[in-house]
Amino acid sequence: MTQPAPNMASDLIRIHKVITRAIGVDLHKGIEYQQNGFKDPQELLGYSSYTHCLVQVLDSHHHGEDMIVFPELKKVLPSAPYARLTAEHLQVERLLDKISPAVEKLSSELQEGLQVIVDTLRKLSTLWPPHYQLEEKNFSAEVLNPLVSLEDQRRISETSSRYSQEHSEPPYWVVPFILYNLELEDRTHMAANFPPVIIEELVPKAWKEQWAPMKPLLLE
Question: Is the CA virtual torsion 171, 24, 80, 93 positive or negative?
Fold first, then answer.
């Protein structure tokens, strides 16, 4: 697969698309499951693993920005609203901290766990859009390209991507979650951020049964 030209703004938009779709799907399905329950253990596992991945991906994305991306960009773009963005990351982190224990409760205290997840996702769905829109406005291609060389964009993107991959577990859930919350064109570009063996062998073959319960929540 051909590596796309480095573009931090496009990478940012793509991971935001993953998270935006996942929040919407997770909230919608959580409400549906509150009303109708789960038809079988596989459906419960699919929702639990999907919700777990949302927490992992969003948390690692924000930590990667705070630890890697923002310090790099401050060198050439000191006027961006880093303090506000970091404060919003903390708000999101507090919400995510409520979701993980609720996922653990789904197998024993279903309605209580779902209530916490749904209530928290409602708050997250309000906080998230203005946050990611502010990032995309301040770190657009028009802003970054004159200031950050293509070589540096590639370096920062690869370092941030590697950090997120290392801090999102387990990969047999998280990688398919990221790829299949994207439409095909974006998915193709995102796939280039992963080693070919993951895309060509592990996701479609070795990991297939492990992420299969999530498939009803993902795009084709």
Answer: negative
For 54, residues 6+ apart whose C-beta sits below 8 A from its C-beta are: 19, 22, 23, 26, 99, 177
The pLDDT, as a whole number, for residue 6 is 57
Based on the structure, what is the number of domains in the chain? 1
Q: Is residue 219 part of a domain?
A: no
63-97 confidence digits (pLDDT tens): 999 999 999 999 999 999 999 999 999 999 999 99
Contacts of 123 (CB under 8 A, 6+ apart): 95
Whether 220 is in a domain gets the answer no
pLDDT of 11-58, one tens digit each?
Answer: 999 999 999 999 999 999 999 999 999 999 999 999 999 999 999 999
- Whether 23 and 118 have beta carbons less than 8 Å apart is answered as no
Look at residues 144, 147, 170 and name the one whose alpha carbon lies nearest to residue 57.
170
Those residues with Cβ within 8 angstroms of residue 70's Cβ, 6 or more apart along the chain or in another chain: 82, 85, 86
Summarize pLDDT for 112-135 with one digit per residue, the tens.
999 999 999 999 999 999 999 999
Q: How far apart are CA 203 and CA 176, in angstroms?
A: 7
Residue 26's alpha-carbon distances to 13, 156, 158, 217, in angstroms, are 20, 30, 28, 8
Residue 119 lies in a domain: yes
Q: What whole-number distance in Å separates Cα of residue 110 and Cα of residue 43? A: 13
